[in-house]
């Protein structure tokens, strides 16, 4: 007992520098971030800021906002924004809405699940050009669809489904759906299936189970899926040209930007349009994420 | 307390079977459960007990047999039409709803008017003593509290039958004991007919009015806890009921009530439980039935190997002369390396036929 009292008092020593740095999250693993940071700075941040600066220095002069004024005053330019929204929003909505029942059905294992999933995901690998080519073959006035409809006397005249709005919308759905589907499926598989069992033992039928259990838990995931689908669809370019009507009905904003920069060689205007495009997307995403913020986003695995 | 069980006479399972492809998970389960009874389905994992419960709940279709609630055949009804309450192993609380809304969910689904609904939710909440947590979300509760919510949610509808699927297996030891008492208390106050699935024989013995011991999908024994504990029908049930020592020996002589078994240098006399005649027999003995020293006729020479201290007594693993391991408990003090003599009264040695089921996998019990 006395030995304890006689011990010299322990002087508190400063922990080693390494430990103090590690405490603040600074250690050698930070080096792992270097390639990513270099990539972001060189290939994204610099070109983006350069473009942003370019958009405020119009070739024709007239102050930093001259290009922006011109965009919103010229209906030919302004309308490209609405055209893009008219394509992007429905395409994203349809993709998300269609992926929910599909993912719901495919969530549980069954025979042929792999084949079906593969079939649904294949369009990702096709690329826009091949899809557009296929659509032209299939939906054209002399394509199989119209031939069939005519043969069965469902229509008297071939319906116009390509080189207009519908062609582009179909193309966006075909190429965008697999992304929406895969994302939705992964969100859905994160929801504990016993929650639905529990709801059913409490008297909830299939619709009530979906409405009160699955959908609220899936909604935050659907919001993200919608944002990504929307961004994909909003930057539509090849299909708007290949299966659309690039000088009229489907003159989307990316075509306007391309036109300004590459055909009129007005890089400043091209940058302006690109910035407007970015800001428009960000507004939609911000609105969706704001709504998502009001949802329950915690664990969905049942166990607390 | 106005949470009351709905009345019925009996719930009858008639040859209920379930198979997955070629694999039989449950084979011809016959069981009649009286109103107000607490029945435990007991067995290791994979014995079919959860399958039986899911069949009862309607979450799994039967591959054979039928289920009757009095005169009403219910095995064709989907779970939402059966109105049985169910408590899941992982609680399955709706994470996006508060405790109150979780408990109210069933009442909402049954279109119970709001005033009545609020009253019944309040009752269910006070029944499981969760008053101060009513506004919280499941993620903010401890395991024991979540379990209480799950139970309150299942009983708020006043179901005729409550099904519980290993409700305590995710809790730590202390909480498990506490919730066990809680479940017993609920059963006593509400008189709820309960079917309880567990792999823990202690839980089953302490809670149930009747036990159903299952193994690989078929029933081994149905009886009161006393019957199953004291008179297991075969070596499998015995192994599950704590008869940890199973010695396979040769029969020296046997009659209706007693069997004498022997092997290298020792003889054991025990109760003939399974009509053991000539040939081999299995002597099943609980570790706590051995007496250190002793001069009874059933004597065993044992070398002590591993000693675990348990406070009141010690749990000891030793070896017989034949090299076979033996487990016993003693309040005396022994140390590894000691040579001791154990004896066991002949009525504590149960002799089973070796042809019946092998003992359960200890890892699963």
Blueprint (SSEs and pairs):
The complex is a heterodimer of chains A (304) and B (365).
Chain A: H1 2-6, H2 17-23, H3 34-55, H4 66-73, H5 75-106, H6 113-139, H7 144-151, H8 165-189, H9 193-201, H10 206-234, H11 238-242, H12 253-263, H13 267-292
Chain B: E1 10-20, E2 23-34, E3 38-42, H1 49-57, E4 64-69, E5 72-73, H2 79-82, E6 85-87, H3 99-109, H4 114-127, H5 143-155, E7 161-165, H6 173-190, E8 193-198, H7 201-207, E9 210-215, E10 218-223, H8 225-230, H9 235-240, E11 245-254, E12 258-263, E13 266-272, E14 280-285, E15 291-292, E16 299-309, E17 314-320, E18 325-330, E19 339-343, E20 350-352
Parallel strand pairs in B: 3-8, 3-9, 6-7, 7-8, 13-20
Antiparallel strand pairs in B: 1-2, 1-4, 4-5, 9-10, 11-12, 11-14, 12-13, 14-20, 15-19, 16-17, 16-19, 17-18
Helix pairs in contact in B: 3-4, 3-5, 4-5
Describe this structure in words.
Chain A has about 300 residues and is mainly α. Chain A is about 70% helix and about 0% strand. Chain A is built from 13 helices and no strands. The model of chain A has no long low-confidence stretch (mean pLDDT about 90). Chain B is α+β, with helices and mostly antiparallel strands and about 375 residues long. In chain B, helix 3 packs across helix 4. Helices cover about 25% and strands about 35% of the residues of chain B. Chain B has a 6-stranded mixed β-sheet, sandwiched between helices. A 5-stranded mixed barrel of chain B has the order 11-12-13-20-14. In chain B, strands 15-19-16-17-18 form a 5-stranded antiparallel β-sheet, with no helix packed on it. The longest helix of chain B is centred in the middle third of the chain and has 18 residues, at about 175-190. The radius of gyration of chain B is 24 Å and the shape is elongated. The interface of A and B includes residues 202, 299 and 303 of A.
């Amino acid at each position: 007992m006395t030995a304890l009292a006689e011990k010299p008092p322990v002087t508190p020593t400063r922990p080693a520098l390494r430990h103090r740095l590690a405490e603040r999250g600074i250690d050698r693993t930070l080096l792992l971030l270097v390639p990513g940071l270099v990539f972001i700075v060189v290939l994204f941040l610099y070109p983006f800021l350069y473009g942003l600066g370019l958009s405020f220095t119009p070739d024709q002069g007239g102050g930093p906002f001259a290009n922006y004024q011109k965009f919103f005053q010229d209906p030919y330019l302004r309308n490209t924004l609405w055209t893009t929204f008219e394509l992007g929003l429905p395409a994203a909505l349809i993709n998300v809405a269609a992926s929910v029942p599909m993912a719901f059905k495919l969530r549980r294992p069954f025979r042929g699940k792999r084949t079906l999933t593969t079939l649904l995901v294949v369009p990702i690998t096709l690329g826009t050009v091949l899809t557009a080519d296929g659509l032209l073959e299939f939906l054209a006035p002399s394509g199989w669809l119209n031939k069939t409809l005519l043969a069965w006397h469902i229509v008297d005249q071939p319906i116009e489904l390509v080189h207009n709005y519908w062609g582009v919308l179909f193309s966006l759905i075909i190429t965008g759906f697999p992304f929406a589907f895969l994302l939705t499926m992964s969100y859905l598989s994160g929801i504990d299936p016993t929650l639905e069992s529990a709801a059913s033992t409490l008297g909830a039928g299939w619709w009530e189970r979906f409405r009160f259990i699955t959908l609220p838990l899936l909604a935050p995931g659907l919001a993200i899926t919608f944002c990504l689908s929307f961004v994909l669809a909003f930057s539509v370019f090849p299909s708007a040209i290949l299966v659309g009507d690039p000088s009229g009905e489907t003159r989307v904003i990316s075509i306007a930007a391309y036109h300004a920069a590459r055909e009129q060689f007005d890089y400043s205007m091209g940058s302006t349009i690109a910035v407007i495009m970015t800001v428009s997307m960000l507004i939609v995403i911000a609105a969706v994420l704001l709504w998502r913020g009001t949802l329950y986003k915690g664990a969905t695995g049942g166990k607390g | 307390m106005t949470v009351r069980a709905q009345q019925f006479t009996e719930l009858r399972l008639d040859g209920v079977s379930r198979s997955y492809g070629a694999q039989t998970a449950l084979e011809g389960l016959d069981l009649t459960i009286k109103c107000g009874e607490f029945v435990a389905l007991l067995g290791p994992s994979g014995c079919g007990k959860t399958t039986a419960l899911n069949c009862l709940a309607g979450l799994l279709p039967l591959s054979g047999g039928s289920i009757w609630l009095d005169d009403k055949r219910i095995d064709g009804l989907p779970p939402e039409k059966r109105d049985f309450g169910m408590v899941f192993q992982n609680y399955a609380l709706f994470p996006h709803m508060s405790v109150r809304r979780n408990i109210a969910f069933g009442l909402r689904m049954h279109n119970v008017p709001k005033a009545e609904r609020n009253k019944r939710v309040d009752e269910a909440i006070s029944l499981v003593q969760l008053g101060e947590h009513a506004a919280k979300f499941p993620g903010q509760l401890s395991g024991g509290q979540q379990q209480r919510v799950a139970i309150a949610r299942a009983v708020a509808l006043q179901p005729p039958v409550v099904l519980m699927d290993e409700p305590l297996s995710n809790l730590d030891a202390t909480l498990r004991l506490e919730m066990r008492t809680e479940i017993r208390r609920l059963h006593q106050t509400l008189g709820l007919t309960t079917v309880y699935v567990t792999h823990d024989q202690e839980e089953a013995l302490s809670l149930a009015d009747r036990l159903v011991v299952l193994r690989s999908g078929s029933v081994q024994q149905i009886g009161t806890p006393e019957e199953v504990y004291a008179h297991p029908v075969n070596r499998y049930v015995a192994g599950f009921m704590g008869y940890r020592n199973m010695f396979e020996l040769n029969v020296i002589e046997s009659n209706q009530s007693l069997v004498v078994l022997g092997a290298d240098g020792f003889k054991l006399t025990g109760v003939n439980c399974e009509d053991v005649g000539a040939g081999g027999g299995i002597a099943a003995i609980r570790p706590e039935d051995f007496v250190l020293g002793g001069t009874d006729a059933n004597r065993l020479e044992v070398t002590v190997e591993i000693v675990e201290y348990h406070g009141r007594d010690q749990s000891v693993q030793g070896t017989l002369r034949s090299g076979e391991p033996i487990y016993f408990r003693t309040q005396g003090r022994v140390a590894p390396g000691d040579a001791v003599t154990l004896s066991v009264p002949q009525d504590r040695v149960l002799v089973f036929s070796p042809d019946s089921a092998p003992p359960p996998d200890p890892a699963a019990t």
